[in-house]
Design a protein that fits this description.
The protein has helices at 3-18, 68-81, 102-111, 125-129, 157-166, and strands at residues 39-41, 47-49, 58-63, 91-96, 118-119, 137-141, 147-152. By secondary structure, it is an alpha/beta fold. The chain has a five-stranded mixed β-sheet, with helices on one face. Strands 1-2 form a two-stranded antiparallel sheet.
């Protein structure tokens, strides 16, 4: 491949990861299908398996500390996670996406006082299984483990509420 073409391709792919398609903010091939299983470790070392959350509505947010829209939506997730109850009701889970330094993620979590688990995703395997093409992306999974909604790009309160309603959770 000629060097100029390789550079253009690399720049285009990089831009796509940082800016998911603006025209399509929701939907995708996973909607209506069982959510891909995962077993990941939190930054605190706890093991989290999607299978253990069965029977609860789940909100998965793929994020990174270097992502500006992630910073903008973090207060919504802090507010939403205040509704979590151990072992029942809504589960909010963060999944790190290509985080360059784990300490940056820890600082982000502290800055925004996020109380829900943030999981490491080695080699982005879970992100790949969920078809993440850019961040932030949020996946809304119902109590039966079926993906009911996917939202790409930074969430507003209104867009968050659309996803919550699709999994039977009262909006903010």
């Amino acid at each position: 491949m000629p060097p100029v073409l390789a550079a253009v391709l690399a720049a285009t792919l990089g831009a796509a990861l940082l800016n998911p398609a603006r025209r399509t903010t929701s939907g995708g091939p996973l909607v209506g299908k069982p959510a891909p299983a995962f077993a990941l470790q939190s930054l605190d070392g706890a093991s989290v398996r999607l299978a253990d959350l069965r029977g609860r509505p789940v909100v998965l947010n793929f994020w990174a500390s270097w992502c500006t829209p992630c910073r903008e939506e973090a207060p919504l997730f802090r507010e939403l996670s205040g509704r979590q109850a151990a072992g029942q009701g809504l589960a909010v889970i963060g999944i790190l996406f290509q985080e360059t330094k784990e300490q940056n993620a820890r600082d982000f979590i502290r800055e925004f006082a996020l109380a829900y688990p943030s999981l490491r995703d080695p080699q982005s395997k879970t992100a790949i299984n969920y078809g993440v093409g850019g961040i932030p992306e949020t996946v809304f999974i119902d109590r039966q483990g079926v993906v009911q909604h996917v939202d790409r790009g930074g969430l507003s309160r209104e867009r968050l509420n659309v996803g919550l309603e699709r999994i039977g959770v009262r909006g903010l």
